[in-house]
Amino acid sequence: MTRITVTVDGAKYSDDVEPRTLLVHYLRETLGKVGTVVGCDTSNCGACTVHLDGRSVKSCNVLAVQVDGHEVTTIEGLATEAGLHPMQESFHEHHALQCGYCTPGMIMQAIDVLNTHPDPTEEQIRLGLEGNLCRCTGYHNIVKAVAAAAKAPGAAAVSSSKVGD
Ligand code: FES
Ligand code: FES
């Protein structure tokens, strides 16, 4: 076992993990952050996307030991007492989900897209989300939601800024 210390959604955790433990399993099984989901375990679907030091990563593609000393933000760290994150609001308003399984990862990736492209074209949104699969929506409303969120104050906020609060 290896001791790691990591900040997740603004709280600091120290835990012993096996060197082979994936970040997504650490988040779900050790920390109970089940808002981050597993769709494939093979880096294909993006359902497990979280932010690591403010940039999106597929957490099934990262070992827990690799986040020692770093900051992770999950879908559970986006909302504040003031309400949902603007990207969450926009997904809600634009009906950008059906079953919702892809949604946590899709939202985390969508925020990363706006961090890279604050005023994105439709093509930039589609390219930015190409690693996140949705089997329900046909993507149309997801793209609309991200485009609308780009106009909302705070939608492109790097979520790690919340971590340090
Ligand atoms: S569960 Fe990580 S990419 Fe599918
Ligand atoms: S809403 Fe069902 S997989 Fe995307």
From TrEMBL:
Annotated PROSITE patterns: 2FE2S_FER_2 (PS51085)
Keywords for the protein's UniProt record, in alphabetical order: 2Fe-2S, Iron, Iron-sulfur, Metal-binding, Oxidoreductase
Alphabetical list of Pfam families matching this protein: Fer2, Fer2_2
Keyword Cell wall biogenesis/degradation: no
Enzyme superclass (EC): oxidoreductase
The protein's annotated pathway: Alkaloid degradation; nicotine degradation
Signal peptide: none
GO-annotated molecular function: 2 iron, 2 sulfur cluster binding; metal ion binding; xanthine dehydrogenase activity
2Fe-2S ferredoxin-type domain sequence ranges: 2-78
The EC number(s) this enzyme carries: 1.17.1.4
Gene3D superfamilies xrefs: 3.10.20.30, [2Fe-2S]-binding domain
SUPFAM superfamilies registered for this protein in UniProt: 2Fe-2S ferredoxin-like, CO dehydrogenase ISP C-domain like
PANTHER family: OXIDOREDUCTASE WITH IRON-SULFUR SUBUNIT (PTHR44379:SF5)
Protein name per UniProt: Xanthine dehydrogenase, iron-sulfur subunit
Species this protein is from: Phycicoccus elongatus Lp2
Phylogenetic placement of the source organism: Bacteria, Bacillati, Actinomycetota, Actinomycetes, Micrococcales
